[in-house]
Amino acid sequence: MGGTGEEGQARLDVAWAALEAGFGALRARLLASPLAAGTGDRVRLHRWLLQARAMVHNFVVAPDWACPTFLTNTLFEPNTYDWLMPNPDFYYRYAFLDGTRSYRVEGRLGTAHFLEAQVIRGFWGDPAIRLLDNYDFAAFAAEADGGIAVSVGPIAPADGANWIALDPAGAPNILVLRECFNDWTCEKPARLRIRPEDGAPSSSDLDEQAMAVRLEAALRLVRFCHDVFGGGLTEAVLDAVGTNRFQLLDTSRDSDAANPSASYLPLVYDLREDEALIIELEIPRARYWSVHLGDPWLQAADFTHHQSSLNGRQVRLDADGRARLILSHRDPGFANWLDPVGRNKGVAILRWYHSDRALVPQTRRVGLGDLARALPPGAPRVTAAERAQALSARRDAVLSRYGH
Fold first, then answer.
1. Is the pLDDT of residue 254 over 90?
2. What's the structural domain count of the chain?
3. Per-residue b/e over 40-71, b at no fewer than 16 CB within 10 Å?
4. pTM score > 0.85 for this model?
């Protein structure tokens, strides 16, 4: 690769210094935020910043466009890489591709609720980022035994086979697979791999110029992730609707390359130990929906060992067909409990997927002593033994999904 020598080294030095200075300035700005007022808030902020540093390597420096693979555990893994509020029901695969080349995704489908692909030109923070398209694997032809092959590239295959289009005008193109598990116990993941159609060339080390370009992109990515998927989102929700209320976001902006299949509704909760927040939902016709919790910096709450998320299959409806979820610090003995894992302040994210309406839930803050009277008669309850069994099954399902 070109760009070696004194000129390349000088640019790399400038990019490295800018990245370090950028992290320092961001840290100082976030420490001055009201979100960092408490000791625990500041500790969680530093955890977010350290994850951001790790993702500079995992998201920006490490991907090899010449020899792509599906990246999984280096992107999101429970309680390790949990920034940006990854959905507890989803298993994510990312591949960083050269938009001018052709690839092939092949393997065997599992039994997940659905598997979707999204293609983005550029990446978070890039000035020219653009959503290209979404693809439902259910629309692709597959073998009777679940075997599947999908062409990925700038030109459609001549035989009209399964195809995901890339944009040759810009590199990289990011292929994102979201595999949704509605039934954590029974649904099994797909086994998929990606390879270049023309044979993988030898991997090559980055030279100074190429590394500088990636470090410059890394700083843009970190700033973007805070502003759009982190504390910046929390601050925007607080400014718009205050605490304990959901806000329907506009995800149509191309600058965010948001997923067009989903409607996103964040809420910033603020609850005392003796309070509960009742989240009441009318259920539209939707392929999937869920609510899950995180901290003010949008790091997902531990969903492996705590019931900090619920999806439409896991929620038990009341007799009137509505869902009422209960966010409280102590287990109230009702089935639809959301556990904030000890955080008095945090964020909840509601997703509607392929829904005929993007409904905004109603919320009521009540004292724990008044909770039973605030719920309809017959609201589904669970015993301590049933809760323990559900948490055990939850832990086993998550650990299995992530290969542990």
1. no
2. 2
3. ebeebbeebbebbeebbebbbeebebeebebb
4. yes
